[in-house]
Amino acid sequence: MGTIETLAAKLAEDTLKAQRITGDDRLFVQVGAVLAAASQSLEEAFLTEVRVRLAEEKARAFLVGKVKEAREAAGSAE
Asked: pTM, whole model, 2 decimals?
């Protein structure tokens, strides 16, 4: 992994943690704007990292919900 990808990944992790603490679910957009003024390459890598992490969180929540539904259905069938 290159420098830009490494920095983008760490910044994405830290930004998403800060979003959870602050309750500002669009904080990553503001961080992206700050990056855009300094480095378009880092901004693009950062936004990609954030989107990937947010997508994974949504998919994981969906999967957990499906497993819970299946277990509840199996439990009520007994």
From this structure: 0.85
Q: What is the pLDDT of residues 4-62, one digit of tens each?
A: 999 999 999 999 999 999 999 999 999 999 999 999 999 999 999 999 999 999 999 99
Alpha-carbon gap, residue 12 to 42, rounded angstroms: 11
DSSP 74: H
Six-digit token pair at 71? 């277990």
Domain ranges of the chain: 3-77
For the purposes of burial, counting CB atoms within 10 Å of the CB of 45, is it exposed (0-12), middle (13-18) or buried (19 or more)? buried
